[in-house]
Each structure stands twice: as structure tokens, then as C-alpha cells.
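Give me C-alpha cells for this 298-residue protein.
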Amino acid sequence: MILKQLVDIHTEHIPQLQLLINSHLGTLVPGWALPVSFIASRLERDPWQIVLDPWVQERRTLGVLVQDRVVAAAHLLRYRDDETVPESYRNVGDVAWLLFWPGAADAARMLLDAAHQQMEAWRVRFCYAWGQGLPIGPFAGIPDVWGHIEALFRGAGYQGGEDHDTNLILYAGPVGVYDADPDVRREVGRIEGTCFQMVKEEQVIGHCEFISDLSRGGLLPALRGWGELAEIEISEQWRNQGLGARLLQTALVWHRLGGGQRVIIATTWNEHAAGSGRFYRRFGLHLLAQTRVGWKRG
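Here you go.
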């Protein structure tokens, strides 16, 4: 019988936790990886998550060791119970992420049971799963390339992943060579990065927000050269005239000018059904994965 030990994740466990996280991350997006120091700091706080993270009251990261190897790990959150937090998150728990090696399903079940015991000790009203997710990328929820993780949560009674307005499909690929459009102007983005605006008759009729540096100034070296299309929209009366393509092309020209080589895009299932997938494939982008969000238990 193989001995499994439940532990709180500490500094000495982080290198093995890094291997576990990066193996899953690299299965989702080729070449993506997080440094040890970044992972350690995000267990304490996620300053890039400006919506959910400020509501967090308590955090705990658990792992299961087998012969001193981290075979499963989970990051647990409890949101505050006060009027500054929306009702849907007030005194609610979140198994923000849980990863395990295929073949370590017993350890993963042991870990999830321990997570549920912690939620009971915190006296949360109910528990989300993968609400915050890993602190990286435009994706959320559980991607289909991590089937062992979805099976674990479904087997534990979690439900979710049925809202096609929030489930995501990821596309990525190399940046091609395009021409910039003179009708597109540039300003600082409202989300982050740069906003490109399509202007006709002195009116903004479309815009896209593009993040040109996913390495965050070199903090994440493996993401150097990657950019993200965070948002794109054309006014309804101007659609189906090729303006969205011209807008995105101009953003990609700007990304390439700064040394960018690759781009990642997340679109909802409903947007994909309406044609966004065909649009992105025209730019040579490939479907990476589909993710399901909105997991909840109890």
C-alpha cells in the first residue's frame, strides 16, 4: 500500500508544484510555464485578479505527497461575508484550482475530500470550483484537455459548464504579416494594453483591446512574444463589411512591430457558434481547447 500524506504547501514543495502546474499549462498552450517565484507569490495574493481577489478573506493551499512527491495540489479560498461582496460570492468557498497527475486519482479524491472539510470548517454557504483558476491566461474553468480533472469534480457532485455565454474556446497561432488600416486609431486600453478604434465619419464604429506583452515586463519569460486579443466589437450596422478583420490586422501589425510573434484569443461558445471561430481561423489561428466554467457544489 502506497502511503499518501496530506500537507499544507510550503516553500520546499513549490518546485514540484511548479512541475505539476506547468505540465498542465503546457498541455493547454504550447510553451507556457510559470516561474517558481511567481507561483509562490500567487498563493498569497493575486494582484492581477482585480475583481474577485479583493473579496478573499482566507486562503489555503493543500497538497498530497507520495514518497515526498507532490502528486496533487489545490488552492482554496473563502470570500468575505459583508456588504462589499456581491450576494453570489458572500461567504462562499472556491476550490480555485486543483491539479493532479493522471494516475493519482486516489490522491486527488483524498485532496478534494480535505478541501470539502476545510469549507465546512469555514462554514461557507456553498462551494465553487475553478472560480478563479490558475493566475494566468485568458482562460477560466476546466479545459477539455484536462479530462481527468473534470471527471474528478463531476464524480464529487459538482455541476456546471453548461452556460454557453461563459464557457470559452481558445484559439492561438503565429502572427502573420498584414497592413495597418489608416482608419484605425490607437489609444490606451480600458482593460489593459492598447485599444484600437475603427473610425468612420468621425465616429468610433468598432474597437479591439490588445495586450502586447503577456510576459508582464519579463516576469513570465515563457510568455515573451505572446499577445492576447482581449476584446473586439463592431457596431451592429457596420458588421459583415470586413471591418473587424481590418481592425484585428492593425492590432497584429502593432504587436509584430513590438517583436510579438504569437497571439491567443478566448471566445465564448455562443460567439463561436455565431462565426467567431471561422473569423479567427482566417488569421491562421488554431483551436487549442474548450473550457467549462461555473462549477458549483452544494
